[in-house]
Amino acid sequence: MTKTRRRRTKEEARAEILSAAAKRLLDAGPDALRIADVAADVGMTHPTLLHHAGSRDQLVQDATVYLMQRTAARTLEAMQRAGDERDLDAFVRESLEAFRDEGRSRAIAWLALTGRLAGTPKPPWTPFVAAAQAARERRRARGSGGSQPAPQREDDDVSTRSALVLAFLAVFALDLIGDTVLADAGLGEGPAATDRFVRWFARLLQRTLTE
């Protein structure tokens, strides 16, 4: 009996392919992603999937962009809630979990090591800068006893962006090599060591964003 293949629009096919490829990136990393496996996951032939994806490397890159967008939305939501040290702790923790849940760190590292990261579309920084600056102004207003947001300072934009870059790099590295580095530095092992570092880093961010 011949199996009838489900007809999809171009957009539906691409969405299913990216979702399946992203899941395989999460499960096994970029090196284990195979066109044939993704084709089987979505019920397509190998040539049909190549028609939509272009190539294996392009599929890895596109699936990484898909993961970036999902992680960015989750991280931005956490940042928009951040208003004090506890919220910053939650922001750092949520960002770390988003990286781990989405398998994003390994995929980004693969793009960087293969020279593809610079040409990969990425989520814009502007919403993150705006959310961080708004949280910064709220904390300043509370610190001064005022009910209105404090005015921006001349160097706020640079320092806010620098703090966000620091947070991104810290979470990225913590996901990839954090367990080993924390242990080698004498800061302990396992989830408890990570929790202590996250709390310390949240306090560092708070001081940076209230200067």
Q: List segments where confidence is low: pLDDT < 50 over at least 5 consecutive residues.
A: none
What is the strand tally? Answer: 0
Q: How far from one another are the termini?
A: 71 Å
Helicity range: over 70%
Strand content: under 5%
Could you explain the architecture of this structure?
By secondary structure, this protein is an all-alpha fold. The chain has a domain at 66-209. Helix content is 74%, strand content 0%. It contains 9 helices and no strands. Helix 4 (56-81) packs antiparallel against helix 5, helix 5 packs across helix 8 and helix 8 runs antiparallel to helix 9. The longest helix is centred in the last third of the chain and has 29 residues, at 156-184. The radius of gyration is 21 Å and the shape is globular. The N and C termini lie far apart (71 Å).
Short description, anyone?
By secondary structure, the chain is an all-alpha fold. It is 74% helix and 0% strand.
Structural topology:
Elements: H1 10-28, H2 35-42, H3 46-53, H4 56-81, H5 85-102, H6 104-113, H7 126-143, H8 156-184, H9 190-209
Helix pairs in contact: 1-2, 1-4, 2-3, 4-5, 4-6, 4-7, 5-8, 5-9, 7-8, 8-9
Name a few traits of the molecule.
211 residues, mainly alpha, 0% strand, globular
